[in-house]
Specification:
mainly alpha, 11 helices, about 0% strand, elongated, disordered N terminus
Length: about 290
C-alpha cells in the first residue's frame, strides 16, 4: 500500500499544483480590466446583434431569430473557447519558456495541462453563464424550466467541451507561434457561418448542410437549442428532430479523436522544446516589436 501511495504521490502533487495554478489564473483574469474586455467584447457584441434580431421571425414560423440564435451562440462559445483557449495558451507559453520550465519539472507537463484545462473550462463556464443570463433578459424566448432541459443542457455542455478541448491542445501543439494560430480562426469562422448558428441550417444548400454536420460546432448548437427552446422550435431543424443520439455520436467521435491525438502531439511538442528554441522565438518576437 505504501509503495502505491509513494508511486502516485508525485502525480497527485502535479495535479494539485495545476489546480492551484488554475485558481490563480482565473482570479487574475477576472480582476484585470483588459482581460475582462478581451473575454467579453465579442460575446456581448453578438448579444447586441441578437437584441436587434429579436423581433424578426424565421419564414413565418413565429419563432424569433434572436431566440433561435441565442442557444446556438452558447454552443458556439463552448466550441470556440475549447478549441482556441488551450491552443493560445500553449503557443504563448512555448514562446516565453513557461512550457520548457514545466517540462524540466517532474510531472510538470501533467500539472501544466491540468491547470490549463481547468482555466479554460472555468472561462467557458463564466462566458456561458453571463451570455445566457443576459440573453434570457435582453433577447428572451429561451428558458431552462424543467429537469429534462437542465439535464440536456449539462450533457451537451460537457460533451461539447470534451469534443473541443483536446482539439485545442492539438492545434496549440502544432503551432509554435502565437500569431500563426490566428490563421486557424478563418476556417473556424467559416464553419460557424455554415453551422446554423445565426440562421437555421435548413435554409442552406444540401452540400453545405452535409459539410457542417461533420464538425462539432453544428452539433453543440443543436444540442443547446434542444435544451433551451420550446418543442415547437424543432420544426426548423433537419428532419424536424433534435437528433440527440446523433449529437452524442458525433461529439463523442470528436472527443475520442481529440483524446487519441492530443497526447501524441503534446509528447512530440514537449520533446522538441529546448532553451535555444525559446531564445530564437524571443528574438523573433523582439524583432517584430512585441
Amino acid at each position: 500500500m505504501n509503495a502505491i501511495t509513494t508511486a502516485t504521490d508525485p502525480m497527485l502533487t502535479a495535479v494539485r499544483a495545476g489546480m492551484r495554478r488554475s485558481r490563480i489564473e482565473l482570479r487574475q483574469t477576472y480582476t484585470n480590466g483588459m482581460d475582462l474586455f478581451t473575454q467579453f467584447f465579442w460575446p456581448f457584441s453578438i448579444l447586441v446583434a441578437l437584441f436587434f434580431m429579436r423581433n424578426g421571425h424565421f419564414e413565418g414560423t413565429g419563432i424569433g431569430l434572436g431566440a433561435l440564435a441565442l442557444p446556438s451562440v452558447v454552443g458556439m462559445l463552448v466550441a470556440f473557447t475549447g478549441m482556441f483557449g488551450i491552443g493560445q495558451y500553449l503557443t504563448l507559453d512555448r514562446e516565453d519558456g513557461t512550457l520548457l520550465r514545466a517540462k524540466a519539472t517532474p510531472n510538470g507537463i501533467v500539472g501544466y495541462l491540468t491547470g490549463k484545462i481547468l482555466t479554460v473550462s472555468g472561462q467557458m463556464l463564466v462566458q456561458v453563464t453571463v451570455v445566457l443570463g443576459f440573453g434570457m433578459i435582453a433577447v428572451g424566448g429561451v428558458e431552462l424550466n424543467s429537469v429534462g432541459a437542465w439535464f440536456t443542457f449539462i450533457w451537451v455542455l460537457v460533451l461539447s467541451a470534451l469534443a473541443t478541448l483536446p482539439l485545442g491542445a492539438v492545434i496549440g501543439a502544432a503551432f509554435d507561434n502565437p500569431r500563426a494560430i490566428g490563421f486557424i480562426s478563418f476556417p473556424i469562422m467559416g464553419l460557424v457561418s455554415i453551422s446554423g448558428v445565426f440562421y437555421p441550417i435548413t435554409s442552406m444548400p444540401g452540400w453545405v448542410q452535409g459539410l457542417a454536420q461533420l464538425f462539432p460546432i453544428y452539433w453543440a448548437g443543436l444540442g443547446m437549442r434542444s435544451a433551451l427552446l420550446p418543442d415547437s422550435a424543432v420544426a426548423v431543424e433537419l428532419g424536424q428532430s433534435w437528433r440527440h443520439w446523433e449529437t452524442v455520436a458525433v461529439l463523442g467521435i470528436w472527443a475520442v479523436i481529440g483524446l487519441a491525438f492530443a497526447p501524441i502531439f503534446l509528447r512530440r511538442m514537449a520533446r522538441r522544446e529546448s532553451g535555444s528554441k525559446v531564445a530564437a522565438r524571443r528574438e523573433k518576437a523582439l524583432a517584430r516589436g512585441y
